[in-house]
Write a structure and sequence with these properties.
InterPro entries: AAA+_ATPase, ATPase_AAA_core, P-loop_NTPase, Rad50/SbcC_AAA, Siderophore_ABC-ATPase
CATH architecture of one domain: 3-Layer(aba) Sandwich
Number of helices: 7
Keywords: ATP-binding, Cell membrane, Ion transport, Iron, Iron transport, Membrane, Nucleotide-binding, Transport
Strand order of the largest sheet: 5-6-7-3-8-9
Order of helices and strands: EHEEHEEHHEHEEEHH
GO molecular function: ATP binding; ATP hydrolysis activity
Number of strands: 9
CATH class of one domain: Alpha Beta
Membrane topology: Peripheral membrane protein
Largest sheet: 6 strands, mixed
Subcellular location: Cell membrane
Structural class: alpha/beta
């Protein structure tokens, strides 16, 4: 059954910009941030919210900023992770106000597909601390560096993610095969029904099929629309290409100039 806020979701109910923080430069010039500045905020689903949109709309930057504002390490991991290899995050997290729900998450994780290698290295380092309990069981019992990227990520969501958690994922499909995306879809649905909340930036038509999820589609002009699954751009484009690939190929390879 799809939970509602009273069932334990809604750890972060909405986000908005600190008044007067818009400088007109990056990251405030990104379409999704312009939307926040213009409208006053964005509501999140108490269960699963997807951010969909083309490259450059700012969805990954927004997920990262919400993670930072919620207390997660900018490079990923749980709230207890405090390592840093190279500071690439934007300043947006310092300019967001999170409206939080009554309940606090018991656990949580921020995953950036591009920096999971660094997270895996930190997991190994922490596991070697003789004064601390072993972490490896929470990640499948095997070092993430000894598994493929996709396998280690599925180990993470299977063994480390648990009930009553807040999970922020940036394009997790980058690590996964289509079959892996289906496994992740099933796990997200299971965790959502265990009082978890997810915010996910994605291009995957498979992941977008999580039942009951809120899909927020961002366009290049800074508009955000709540769309049904069948109307989400990754779904319509993929479905169209698979149905008539020759039409798309003809369009792509024809020189109209």
């Amino acid at each position: 059954m799809h939970q509602d806020e009273s069932a334990g979701g809604g750890f972060v109910q909405s986000i908005r910009l600190v008044p007067g923080s818009d400088t007109g430069r990056y990251p405030f010039a990104l379409p999704v941030v312009r939307y926040l500045a213009r409208t006053g905020g964005l509501a999140l689903d108490p269960g699963v919210t997807f951010l969909a949109g083309d490259n450059g709309t700012g969805k990954s930057t927004l997920v990262e900023a919400i993670a930072v504002a919620a207390g997660f390490n900018p490079e990923g991991g749980s709230r207890s992770f405090r390592f840093a290899t190279r500071a690439t995050e934007s300043s947006l997290g310092d300019h967001l106000i999170l409206r939080r729900g009554i309940r606090k998450p018991r656990t949580g994780f921020f995953l950036r597909a591009e920096s999971y290698y660094n997270v895996a290295t930190e997991i190994e380092r922490l596991d070697q601390d003789a004064g601390s309990p072993s972490l490896m069981a929470a990640y499948g019992g095997i070092s993430p560096h000894e598994r493929s990227h996709g396998q280690s990520f599925l180990d993470l969501v299977t063994h480390r993610f648990g009930p009553d958690g807040l999970y922020l994922l940036d394009e997790p499909e980058a690590a996964l095969s289509p079959r892996g995306c289906m496994a992740l879809l099933a796990r997200i649905t299971e965790l959502r029904d265990s009082r978890c909340q997810f915010l996910i930036a994605t291009h995957s038509p498979i992941l977008l099929a999580v039942p009951g999820a809120r899909i927020l589609q961002i366009d290049g002009e800074g508009e955000i629309e709540h769309v049904a699954y069948d109307n989400a751009e990754p779904v319509t484009l993929t479905r169209g290409f698979l149905t008539h690939p020759e039409r798309f190929l003809h369009h792509l390879f024809t020189d109209d100039g």
